[in-house]
Amino acid sequence: MKILNEFEKHVLLEKGTEPPFSGEYNDFFEHGIYVCKMCETPLFTSDSKFSGHCGWPSFDSSIGNNVKEVLDQDGMRTEIICANCGAHLGHVFRGEGFTMKNTRHCVNSISLIFIPKDKLNHSLRTDYNL
Ligand SMILES: [Zn+2]
Predict the structure, then answer these.
(1) How far is the CA of 12 from the centre of ligand 1 (A)?
(2) pTM
(3) Helix, strand or coil for residue 10?
(4) How would you class 98 by CB atoms within 10 Å of its CB: exposed for 0-12, middle for 13-18, buried for 19 or more?
(5) Which domains does the chain have, with CATH numbers?
């Protein structure tokens, strides 16, 4: 497991939220995949990323069953976590009409690590259609 700094611990372990428009992947549209910062499980591809203008990276789908949804304690929002290690990623919203999939995974940049397409081997690029 990766050693996290204090702010990463706050977001990933204590379900904190980075300030809007502050994260390194908010306005970032390179081709590649986004993996969990804690365990490096692939979570999202650049294909699913779109501009939600909300201040956090937005994805309209996740990879396989690697992102798990959990109802918040207040029952109002649905939290998303890494299905492998349980790290907090953000929240998922549906019915907003941003894309055809009508789903927005609103994710903290700090929960993710981006791996550019040219760092992935051929079979992974094929798997993720990159
Ligand atoms: Zn993880």
Answers:
(1) 9
(2) 0.95
(3) helix
(4) middle
(5) 6-128 (2.170.150.20)
